[in-house]
Amino acid sequence: MVNKQKKKKKRTIPIRLNILFFVVFFLFSILILRLGVVQIVYGNDYKREIERTEDITVNSPVPRGKMFDRNGKVIVDNMPRNAITYTNFGVSQDEMLKVAERLAELIDLKPDKVQERDKQDYWMIKNPDRAKEKVTKKELDALKEKYEDTKEYNKEVYKLQLDRITKAELNELTDKDLEILAIYRAFSSGYALTPQIVKNEDVTQEEFALVSENLQYLPGVDTTTDWERSYTFGSTLKTVLGKVTDSNEGIPKEELDYYLARDYNRNDRVGKSYLEKQYEDVLHGQKEKVKNITDKTGKVIETKVISEGERGKDLVLTIDMDLQLEVEKIIEEELMKAKQSPRTGLLDRAFVVLMDPNTGDVLTMAGKQLVRDKETGKTELQDFALGTITTSYNVGSTVKGATVLTGYQTGAIRPGTVFYDAPLKIKNSKKISSWKNFGNTSDIRALRVSSNVYMFKTAIEIGQGHYEYEKPLPINKKAFDTMRESFAQFGLGNRTGIDLPNEATGYVGPQKDPAQLLFLAIGQYDTYTPMQLAQYVSTIANGGYRIQPRLVKEIRDPLMESEELGPVVKEIEPKVLNRIKLQKGWMENIHEGFRQVTQHPEGTAYKKFIGATYSPAGKTGTAQGFYDGPQRNKYDEPPEVMNLSFVGYAPHNDPEVAISVVVPWAYQGRSGGHSANTTIARRVLDKYFEMKKTREENKLNQNSTSTENQNDEMNEEQQNEE
């Protein structure tokens, strides 16, 4: 029995071992098969995963936002155009050059941007052996001893080679070489993994198609749609709308750190002046974000779109472009007409600002300037709307409303105060007077007839002075600060706060002798911009609120593939900068004085505004000064000139529009043959109310037509039901 049991045990052990060996063999077979699949089928994929070293996110630029006028008309748009780009994926110089040579066979690119240094570099790339021969072994040994750092050594060797390339050698470069160089220059001027414009001007359909068909032979090259700014109304307001850098300029050097910190690329186009710059954050849009995954060599393994791009948000301006065009036309006509008058050789510009005095909306911002073309020698009118905020002038009697109110505030005068208007004579000074002796004159009449003497005597009272004929005039010099601070409440001599950079404040006269205080009171000492005048008269029109002028009223989301306005993102609310402290009767007297200027037979603008149905109010200005314009270098002493101005609003009892007109250097001498300031003002206000009436009538007709159509539809439905 014992022997039988032993035999059974001996048989059982080999069977178990066999089963174990079989299981192990089976498992190893599966493992080997799996390893084979991993190595053979997925080996390259896993190898790439292991070799991934960096995820680089690249921002691709998108078109800028558009600009619309207050009525929804497009002012600034983006014009699409074909473009050829290159993205450097970390390839070598030789590889880049080969691609440039292939691309040169497909497109024409003018080498006009190629510099001397570019040619030298390219010559050395093409002639490496000849370049080496430019530096002797002795010189190389000397440089090695001098520069231990390899980079410094190579830099000095390269510099010597460049300096020794002759003009004859550079002339060896053919036209084809220069074209290849121009393309290579565009390639190498970009940044790693950032698309760089190679050509986006005059790309023909044939070029675009050829490059598109051969992209597999042009690594890094791509065809795309680029854009450029287009202006629906030509040069109108172009100086105010501003400029955008092109793809070659990229970000200005002085602002590079600012924009790079805000996720811009170095070659991004940005607004570089005025509205384009002021609203860059809004207009530049949401870039497309693309992640490039590279291996250890810098080669791109995979590209993923992280987020889709969206063009910039749109701006709705306060400007009424139809009105702007009409105002510009009026300025041009009256400027050219005035030039026919005697002694107007220095007259070369005129400005008009129309503003809503209750909101600060700038309805028109117009300026025209006569400029001689250097090439043709002909004189032509150019847009100079920017001059309404960047240039300042003596504006004369238009500031007298501020002078009277300063008199009220300081207690120098009160409503109804009467001064005798007769010439004044301060010791060692010329006699000064109004344009006519008016006798006893009240504050309201002083505004109506534009009495200088009334303003002189008000200023003397503000300065706590004592006037006697042909005697010295003692005054408190603090009166200059008092008057200027008071004027600043209206915006005179102050930045208006308009949403544009580089606004001028005007010139502040340096002297503080008594005579200058009197001239300050009549607008013939400090200088003011046309925009400051518009803010000043708006402050009077609305009862004492200084409103910040604004050019942008809304920011809107873009509607892709549409010319219509998208939903409102932000509405720019009117902003009150300060309120003038007033007592009962003060502003009412100013309003009445301004009304009488245009509606009383004695008013200085009465003849010009006879028959105006919109009840205007305003103040004329004529400032005697000295010419300081572009032709001043022609004279040993600046000639005496007169500046003409006008400020006003309408209707006088419920103002909806305010106006400032400035015509600098209207004529030489103290009298002239034209009144362009009031002529322009009358024509512009007439046009404003004419257009308003036409629009209201059109709106009524549209509503009537719409109602009739609705009634017709209802009648048709009833008939169908019956």
UniProtKB/TrEMBL annotation:
UniProt keyword Phosphoprotein, yes or no: no
Source organism superkingdom: Bacteria
GO biological process: cell division
Domain (Penicillin-binding protein dimerisation): residue spans on this chain: 61-304
InterPro entries (UniProt xref): Beta-lactam/transpept, Beta-lactam/transpept-like, PBP_dimer, PBP_dimer_sf, PCN-bd_Tpept
Keyword Cell membrane in annotation: yes
Acidic residues bias (residue ranges): 710-722
Keywords assigned by UniProt, alphabetized: Cell cycle, Cell division, Cell membrane, Cell shape, Cell wall biogenesis/degradation, Membrane, Peptidoglycan synthesis, Transmembrane, Transmembrane helix
Domain Penicillin-binding protein transpeptidase: 351-685
Start and end residues of each stretch annotated as Disordered: 694-722
TM annotation in the entry: 20-42
Compartments (UniProt record): Cell membrane; Membrane
Membrane topology: Single-pass membrane protein
Gene3D superfamilies listed in its UniProt record: DD-peptidase/beta-lactamase superfamily, Penicillin-binding protein 2a (Domain 2), Penicillin-binding protein, N-terminal non-catalytic domain, head sub-domain
Pfam families: PBP_dimer, Transpeptidase
Family listed: Belongs to the transpeptidase family.
Name of protein: Cell division protein FtsI/penicillin-binding protein 2
Organism: Anoxybacillus andreesenii
